[in-house]
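Researcher: Please translate sequence to structure tokens.
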Amino acid sequence: MHLSFFFISAVGSCLITALLVHCSHAFSATNNNIMTSARPFRIRTITSFITIDPSDFDNEASSLKEKITACSRLLRDGESQMTTAGFEVQTIRIATNPFGEWLVTNNEDVNERLQRFNKLLSDCDINFCSLGPSYDPEHTTTICPEIVSIAPGRFSCSANINAGDITAALAAAKCIKTISLKDEGEHLQGGLGNFRFAAASCIDTVPFFPGARAPKGLGKDTIAFAVGLENGGFARELLQEAGSIENVQKVFHDKMRKELLPIQQICVGLESDNGMHYLGIDTSLNPSLDDGGSVAEAIECLDEVGVFGHPGTMAAAAAVTTSLQSIPDVKTTGYSGLMLPVLEDRRLAELDTLSIQKLLCISSVCGVGIDTVPIPGDVSEKSLASLILDVAALACRWNKPLSCRVFPVPSRLAGMATSFDSPYMCNSSIF
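Model: Translation complete:
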């Protein structure tokens, strides 16, 4: 797609979109509305992907402004069409190519570029932007903490970890510890900064943050996009109907296909009308903080499970993931598995029988990896690096996208309770 086509009255377009206040742009934790009878789940994100070049910052970043304006217009179009079709769209987001390709230059301060980018996003009312992964351990330890520190918390990023890369894992561990101690702003206090950073492996076309990044090889004049869901309540409905692992695939293929095809039809239309590249839907089961929104609780509806984490859980997770990745006629992307973010799933948060190793074991047959897990604030960088290496080994061995997002909580020990004051998360005991 040629972005120049969309750069008509760029400033005016941004001002108009900035005036559109979308209450649904907060995460699910801030919105406990009951799903309409027409649509049994929300759209967590429509994420667009762009490739940024250092030259985009020339001439007062006019080219970058053009790209963001084009993204904003197209994302709003998608949001409008999906809302008209009865879906609640919570966020629209932008993810870029790895920031080392465009943010780090010899002739301009990193913070200056971040602030300029931040202002352009704010002007177009884009509140979530992932700057891709770091591939340089030095960037991981110095620039990633700076990225997540920019107020008001619009930016996310990650560090790419390959199997056995001890240097990269140690750098990511140091970054996590550094971020956990930052407190200059509400988005950082109490260790919350690590909500926006993860060590990631085998990530490509994932619409969820903080691991999202532009696909490799995406042209600098092309916008791609993907959709991510929030569907814990729907998962419970489907798994109650299935009753047993042996029925999961049939129920998911029938019921999820029916609900996803209208989204896909809109996305294909956006691709055709605007020249965007449609990557697919991340069909992952993704919890909400609503009553009945827990994915773990949904899994417990199966006869073979009983209590999440007990025998039968891995079999259920495998059956669900296999079904989510093979829904007929639906183009899938991203994780398309079982999301188990401890601080975003009330049932996971209350289970005292879970451990990080048990979660990692379950991740071997499903979704995201180790996600939003609170850990002691005094955890050593060496221990963190070992955990990151475990996740990377699993991801690279099976060529599946996994990430490690943990929250060292300052001044808290294992077994103590967290006290996060965030609309995006609940609280739990520290692992």
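Researcher: Any highlights?
Model: The longest strand covers residues 42-50.
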